[in-house]
Task: structure prediction
Amino acid sequence: MSKPHILVARDIFPEVIEQLAPHFEVHANQDDTLWSQAELIERLQGKDGALLTGTQPINAELLAACPRLRIAANMTVGYNNFDVAAMTAAGVQGTNTPDVLTETTADFGFALLMATARRMAEAEHYLRAGLWKSWRYDMFAGSEVHGSTLGILGMGRIGQGIARRGAHGFGMNVIYHNRSRLSPALEAECQARYVSKDELLAQADHLVLVLPYTRESHHAIGAAELARMKPTATLVNIARGGIVDDAALAAALKDGRIAAAGLDVFEGEPGVHPGLLAVPNVVLTPHIASATVPTRLAMARLAADNLIAFFDGRGALTPVNQPVHRS
Ligand code: DGY
Result:
């Protein structure tokens, strides 16, 4: 029996290509060419499945042009590149990679919070520029982390990981807002108190965004929300670009309406709003919250395992939709 044909849309770990090889005819993009949508459609012709890195849109246009495609496996937990309704209607399975990146991403969220609150990037640039001439009592004085109020918007697995770090590691008072409230047992474990979004904005000293990007969460933090935050507060986004209105944030940072921000994700990335590049009180990183070698390997392996299980007839391991089975 001939093997299914799989497209691997970006360069990934060679050991994952080896993992796929016994099961599939693998068409890998190890040159890491960045394809346009039209080029992706062209490469997907005759392919039964695809391993994606979360940046390739799987939308109605692509699905109509690639009728053989049966599964799109993201090596990311976020799947806002999927038009889930269109995929379900077209009978295409979508999968993501939850759990394997939770603790690593929570580590990074906390690192970005610390770097932002304690002005580490700004201070490092100052030192490298040769500007450090003497010690001063107020040089790069930042805001307190331990004992402060940590606000979390979006309390899924990563949000809970950040809450545990804040509460247990830094003695923070943790408040959160989420579409649904956690069970009392989980709230107790995270030492987190549920509040309204308004209360979250008003009370947080450090606000971390960890919610999925959807139509509803688009610009969940815009000018109005920033205006409700404390002028001493910091904002950290490790979720997705588009959740924050980057133009409004750049203006708020410039005018000192909040103290600082730490951003790992951006609207229209890899582009970054010029207003964010122009202000010193923001720490900017290029979407690396899950980037450790063991975690990225686990993510790629889980995406590959999803493809293998699906074509073995066992069903996807971490599905994001339930398409009607196609014969
Ligand atoms: C994810 O897994 O969603 C991370 O943001 C990497 O894209």
